[in-house]
Amino acid sequence: MQALKFVRNGLVACAALLATLSPAAKATAQTQTPSGVKTVLLVHGAWADGSSWSKVIPLLEAKGLHVVAVQIPLTSFADDVAATERAIALEDGPVLLVGHSYGGAVITEAGNDPKVAGLVFVSAVAPDKGESTLGLISSVATPIGSELRPDKNGFLKLTPKGVAEDFAQDLSAKEIAVLTATQVPVNVAAMKGEVTIPAWKSKPSWYIVAGNDRAISPDLEAAQAKRIGATTTTVSSSHVIMLSQPAKVATVILDAASKAVSK
Question: Which segment of the chain is annotated as a signal peptide (predicted)?
């Protein structure tokens, strides 16, 4: 009985102590949030899907981040931005948007959402107002251009040679075969979609330049990174840098996640 009485008295004392906390102190405790971004949304590019991030996802999750690979349809720029905006809406903010290749245009537009704390461009386009992916990548010719094949509905597909030599030339033969078999064609309308409000003008940005890119010119990538004022990292890699150098991509994303809120 004495023990029960002691526990009961202790609980009463704790309740009394909590009651003495000032409203301001309570409010502070309720509004404090952990530093940095805890949610990362990954947006794939053309001729790919969310599985292109398969090597990066476990590296980010191992560091405690919540990761979502957005599946954009590649049917039109508006459709792809809308798919990304729906993904953002489902998450608690703040979030970090990461875009590869054409996905850079998508995050440039969708990144204006108030929940978005920062942008990471991975061998990607970063269009300004009125610019499109097609306009940017065609401004500096690359070998991949001759390996695109359109169908009657306006969707572009890469030839096996294009995948092996210009898209993923530093991956294993087995990985190249899988990419060739699973590639998702992109509609020309998506590539022609123009950005209206570039989120990188108001959000901190990071950029990974793929030094051996044969799909988007490395020089164009470096110029875009400079134009948007991004924290820039250059890695010797093919266009699919997240598959050839996943650890280096993950390192940049982790750095961005830790700094995006306070930068």
Answer: 1-27
CA-atom Rg of the chain in angstroms? 23
Q: Alpha-carbon distance 43 to 49, whole Å?
A: 8
Give CA–CA dist 217/103, Å, rounded: 16
| Residue 32 belongs to some domain of the structure | no
Residue at 25 is within a domain: no
Work out how many domains the chain is built from and give that number. Answer: 1
Structural domain harbouring 122: 39-259
- Alpha-carbon distance of 98 to 175, in angstroms, equals 23
Q: Is residue 237 part of a domain?
A: yes
**Secondary structure class of 170 (helix, strand, coil):** coil
198: domain CATH number is 3.40.50.1820
Hey, what are 48's tokens? 């790919």
Q: Tokens 């476990």 belong to which residue?
A: 58
- CA-CA distances (angstroms) from residue 4 to 17, 178, 201? 20, 66, 63
The tens digit of pLDDT for each residue in 215-259 reads 999 999 999 999 999 999 999 999 999 999 999 999 999 999 999
